[in-house]
Amino acid sequence: MIHQLFSSIFRQPIFTFSFIVFLCIFGFFTFDSSLNYTTKKTHKSSSSIFHYHSTFISLSSNYTVSEYLRSLTLHPHLAGTQEGYQTTQYVKTHFESLGLDNKVSEYKVLLSYPEFLSLTAYFSNLGSKEIGFSEVGFDVVKPYHAYSPSGMAVGKAVFANYGREEDYHELEVLGVNVSGCVVIVRRGEGMSRGGVVRVAEARGAVAVLTYTEGVYVKGVERGTVMKGLGDPLSPGWASVVEGGERLGRNDKEVEDRFPKIPSMPISIETAGVILRSLEGPKLPEKWELALNNGNDVRIGPGPTVLNYTFQGEEKIATIYDVFAVIRGSEEPDRYILLGNHRDAWTFGAVDPNSGTAALLDVARRYAMLMRLGWSPRRTIILCSWDAEEFGMIGSTEWVELNIMNLGSKAVAYLNVDCAVQGSGLFASATPQLDDLLVEIMKKIEDPDAEAKTIFEQWFARNKGINIQRLSGVDSDFAPFLQHVGVPSVDMYYGKDFPVYHTAFDSYDWMITHGDPLFKRHAAVAGLWGLLALRLADDTILPFNYSSYAIQLQEYTNILSDMLDGHVSFTPITTSVKNLLAVAQEVEEEAQKLRMEETSTDMELRKRMLNDRLMLAERGFLDADGLLGNRWFKHLIYGPSNKCDSKLSFFPSIANAISESKENEVAIQHEIWRVARAIQRAVDALKGDFR
Predict the structure, then answer these.
(1) Which of 98, 262, 518, 583 is deepest in the core (most CB within 10 A)?
(2) Inter-CA distances, 99 with 22, 83, 367, Å
């Protein structure tokens, strides 16, 4: 195993001696005696900052990050459990060992665990058979859907493809009625687990079974079916340990967040057994399956009858967010946040602890830079979230608790969840960070191609620049961007790994399949940490709002074509033109300030410009929130009410369209709301009143 190989190298006396000598020589030539990381430093030269940033890249260590991951995945660590608390202590102890200031925030929240579950199939030709879960032998939590209601359901099995509205329309055309049935659904096509269950519930189904398909898929995929983010008993405010308000479990606002029918995950093998036993209409051609003889499957209902029983336990549990804080020397009240969650459904080697290992490695590298004399211009906060798997609960509670400070002080939030799932970098960001992200990619060596940068490989694979956006609610960036309006980034290697949320997401899988030499882990840590260093140390924030304006115009063109002239997009187009003009003016102002010599007046002007760059993203927020989901405030990026919506932007307009495409008055109102939001961003960037 890779960690044993590196361990044997480090145990060799000649290597240890050489390593110590290297550190001494390295420290002698890189330490500036005029700088002491325990004292305040001001006006550091750009050359010294560049030197520290280069040093950060050179401190990469595959061995170290592999050891972090091995330690994090020795046992399962579901949020709210004793094992979860042990992982909390591991992260906290690591920060302490590096000499970093650290803090732990506790919350009491409603979590959900399985007590008993069973699934029996009654086949017309084979009789009854109790179906297992394909993960026998693992000491982990049973496969379940968190917050699924307890109960028993009996009904004929029917297959509903991905469980989208369009899939049920297809069933109706074939004369299939799912009312009173147990629906089988495969995961995918942008449908959340909760969304799948709610659509089936509305169609009269009595239960839902979900499975993940793929040639190499192993195990059973756990997950949550709760709607929305954060503790369900404290919607919109933090669930503090003592003295906080909590709604009752039977409160309507709480009840509305959970499905009314039970659901559970099953393996692809179990799904195959059930689906091949069905009769009724043939599988539609466009529903091609990845099962053996999948195209011979019929969709039911029945004659196979399924009997499903689930007994869950909901309880108030304590969760813990852990932070390491590196105070800024010149702008300590401006925050650069790096975040990853550490709770896992099972061992969590990929999800999320590949990201946790990268976060710990970033902390290690920062601590070494501090010993060499560096301190950031702005404050850097390393965030380790809890209970993300239950619905981004840890990060959401912290954001709600600190909403005023974050709204006025947070420069950017940089998220890494599953740092390494496989090969190929995937990156998402708010558009003003596009240029910086590309620039940093050009400085890190690609882990899978010798003598090439991450950017070169990424650009070649995508045939150009391909930065995605952040409308989903699938990781901890959501509360920062979509509730508070903090510019955000999300990054990871690989996609759709076959052991997602299963007992097979282990250290052994990582060293066998995901990243045997931990080069990708080291690359993510380098990309993540260097991105934060630029945001923390640049005298003028490297934001480009021209990119934002261009992106917004592209969205407007798409919607305009879709609605074919039934409403006017002139309000948005006008605001976007204003944004582009101001963005260009701001960039010229920034270039001039970068060229001028430092003075007290110059520092104040830079500070004022940085505030405008930081706060412009907040302009896209609207106090009334999205149509149908007020907690989400961002009118450019956020979730649509329709689980299978094809629009990943202007969510409130998308919601109005989904409710009634013919209701032009409602759609036009949402267009005006977006236009006003863009104009607020323009005003914030301009920095003057009209």
Answers:
(1) 518
(2) 22, 25, 7
pLDDT computed for residue 130 by the predictor: 80
Q: Give residue 371's pLDDT.
A: 97
* pTM given for the model: 0.92
pLDDT at position 690: 82
How many CB atoms within 10 Å of residue 543? 31
If DSSP codes are grouped into helix, strand and coil, which group holds residue 440? helix
Crossing angle of helices 664-686 and 651-659, in 10° steps, is 180
- The H-or-E segment that residue 653 falls in is helix 651-659
pLDDT given for residue 24 in this prediction? 32
Catalytic residues: 388
The span from the CA of 488 to the CA of 568, in Å, is: 30
Res 508: pLDDT: 97
For residue 466, the SS3 value is coil
Q: In 3D, which of 520, 533, 620, 71 has the Cα closest to residue 338?
A: 533
Rounded-to-integer distance, Cα 71 and Cα 115, Å: 28
Spatial distance between the Cα atoms of 302 and 108, rounded to a whole number of angstroms:
44
CB 515 within 8 A of CB 391: no
> Which residues lie closer than 8 Å to 606 by C-beta, 6 or more apart?
539, 540, 593
CB 333 within 8 A of CB 182: no
Alpha-carbon span 112 to 134, nearest angstrom: 22
| Angle, CA 219 vertex, CA 214 and CA 224 arms, to 5° | 95
SS3 47: helix
Report the 10 Å Cβ neighbour count for 241. 11
CA distance 339 to 342: 10
Tell which residue, 296, 269, 302, has the closest CA to residue 283: 296
444: which 2 tokens?
């890190």
pLDDT given at position 595: 87
Where residue 125 falls (left for φ over 0; alpha for ψ -120 to 50; beta otherwise) is alpha
CB atoms within 10 A of CB 442: 12
pLDDT on residue 134:
67
The full set of domains in the chain, from first to last, is 31-97+327-537 (3.40.630.10), 110-316 (3.50.30.30), 545-686 (1.20.930.40)
Nearest CA to 375 out of 43, 3, 613, 24 is that of: 43
Tokens representing 356? 């946790």
Angstrom distance (rounded) from CA 542 to CA 377: 14
**Structure confidence at residue 132 (pLDDT):** 66
Quick one: which of 335, 326, 323, 413 has its CA closest to 368? 326
CA atoms of 284 and 281, how far apart (whole Å): 8
Burial grade of 329 (CB within 10 A; 0-12, 13-18, 19 or more): buried
Q: CA 455 to CA 164: how far, in whole Å?
A: 36
Nearest to 345, CA basis, from 261, 473, 219, 208: 219
Nearest to 481 by CA among 638, 685, 654, 339: 638
Residue-level pLDDT at 45: 67
Integer Cα distance of 196 and 680 in angstroms: 36
**pLDDT at site 8:** 38
| Token code pair at residue 414 | 């940089």
Q: What does the alpha-carbon distance between residue 488 and residue 647 come to, in Å, rounded to a whole number?
A: 20
Phi, psi for residue 490 in degrees, rounded to 5: -135, 135
**Per-residue 3-state assignment (H helix, E strand, C coil) for 76-95:** CCCCCCHHHHHHHHHHHHHH
412 beta partners: 336
Q: Quick one: tokens of 543?
A: 């934001």
The shares of helix, strand and coil residues in the chain, as percent rounded to the nearest 5, are 45, 20, 40
- Runs of H (alpha helix) within 108-240: 165-173, 193-202
346 in Cβ contact with 140 (< 8 Å): yes
Q: At 335, phi and psi to the nearest 5?
A: -115, 130
Stretches in the chain below the pLDDT threshold 50: 1-43
DSSP code of residue 277: T
